[in-house]
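Before a colleague's protein record goes any further, I have to sign it off. Thanks in advance; the entry in question is below:
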Amino acid sequence: MPISERLSLLGSGVFARNDQRKLAYQRKLADQQRWRADAGQASPVPLPPLLDLSLGSTDLQPPAAAIEAIAASLQQPESASYCLHGATLPFREAVAAWAGRRFGVAVDPGTEVLLLVGSQEGTAHLPLAVLNPGDAALLLDPYYPSHLGGLQLASARPVLLPLEAASGWRPDFDRLGAAEWDALKLMVLGFPHNPTATTGEQSWLDEAVQRALRHDIVLAHDNPYVDLALDGEAPALLRNPAWRQCGIEFFSFSKSWCLGGYRLAFAIGAEWLITALRQLKGVVDFNQSLALQAGAIAALEQAPQWPERLRAVYRERRDHMAAALEAQGWPLRRPSMALYLWLQLPEVAQRRGLDSEAFCAALLEGTGVCLTPGNGFGPSGEGWQRLALVHPTAELEAGAARIGAWLRQL
């Protein structure tokens, strides 16, 4: 049967590849447990349990107010119905009020806010709404995978802007010439930045806005980590007064309110961009249940302090895990953003000729600790790996000890 060329271009995705490796490891664990039960004795070399540090899926819980609002709304018959755009107005009004409190900006809930089924849905679908096949779009490199995936689905041409550790991961917009800027139709940024865990600066985004205005480019800013800056204040497109002229910004409940599995997010942007994305959504999908929207509204209105609580937890985890890895001989830069460590390939792995994918596969096989290989985030991610701080500090430190012992064996 035929398979599209577009599907081949998308490839398997780094999270899907990691998922297969984790499943294989878990099968080995299960086989070992069965062997021990059948033999009545311990196996010679017991496998350690899986410690999954590959996904930014937190172990921390959402605010009780959000869960209680969802539970109460589930009793209402309309929560089981399809939800069209008009029924999302209470959610959009709550988002507009939040934007006023958070950024001091007046937002029209009728025309400038859109509910999303996770921010990835928005970033992946936006290129279909604003680009034609062959159009050029700028991506940071490393990038989040859905940013590239959205361009590939739209048959657009990615233009990669490498970020470098030596410059603090600051984007150097002067690397592109005037003709390259004139050819661009879309620019996709995201600070605080995933995967490098860099908060970034408002001046970087302001410069991008000026470029977008000068060259007639749509600026999409992916900002799910806006509340998780550990050092300094996170940049935001909404802080630039020209956001209505060229931009759209994506926010999520997954990180700030620990609601990742509920797939709740929203976009705030120029009316014409919100309209375009809403038109696309009207063909592709419906909206999340009114019950889930009730939980999101409760999170915004009743638990505004929740991100602050999370930052305290993540700061402790960052500091303890960084110290633990350094004690095991794996030096690193302490990130300014919560949730991740961005780790350069250890020297011993480089000497053995392991790239990031082979290193993470071998690490999982040897220790049961799963990281995400940096090559899944673009060419500039090669030689790096991402570690998610999604387990209690004691478990993270135990994982660092496993990693250190394995690195010494290499």
